Amino acid sequence: TIDRLAPTHFTSPAGSSHPIDYDAEGGPRVDLRPQALFGLATHPMIAGGRVPLVLSLTSPAGRPIQTTRDLPGFWAGSWAAIAKEMRGRYPRHPWPDDPAS
Fold first, then answer.
1. Which of 3, 9, 28, 93 is the most buried (most CB within 10 A)?
2. CB atoms within 10 A of CB 67
3. CB atoms near residue 76 (< 10 Å)
4. Model-level pTM?
5. How many C-beta atoms lie closer than 10 Å to residue 29's C-beta?
6. How many CB atoms lie under 10 A from the CB of residue 45?
7. Sequence-ordered list of residues with C-beta below 8 angstroms from that of 55, at least 6 positions apart, any chain
8. d(Cα 93, Cα 41) in Å, to the nearest integer?
9. Judging by DSSP bridges, how do beta strands 54-58 and 29-32 pair with one another?
10. What is the mean pLDDT, run by run of 10 residues, along the chain of 101 residues?
């Protein structure tokens, strides 16, 4: 039950596994690139869907881009500006217009 409600790792739609930091300020946090979340239209939750993971999104170089508890809002909002900037810096990485689909 503990493993199901409080997993040690988050598995992204891309199939990669990312450790969850339960000691992080602001709640359980996962550091990952936005590319690992492509195809995810809902925000990842733990504790039986009661606690949203804090997503600390990083550039391909591992630098922080943005932190969110609302992935659909991020895709619909600031993603366009971030993707535009990142396309110039990291042209070899995908930066789609509609990452949720």
1. 28
2. 13
3. 12
4. 0.93
5. 20
6. 12
7. 29, 30, 32, 37, 43, 44, 67, 68, 69, 71, 74
8. 20
9. parallel
10. 94 95 97 96 96 97 96 97 95 95 89
Check residue 27 and give left, alpha or beta (phi > 0: left; psi -120 to 50: alpha): left
Cα separation, 97 vs 100, whole angstroms: 9
Q: Give me Rg for the CA atoms of the chain.
A: 13
3-state secondary structure of 57: strand
Helix%, strand%, coil% for the chain, nearest 5: 25, 25, 50
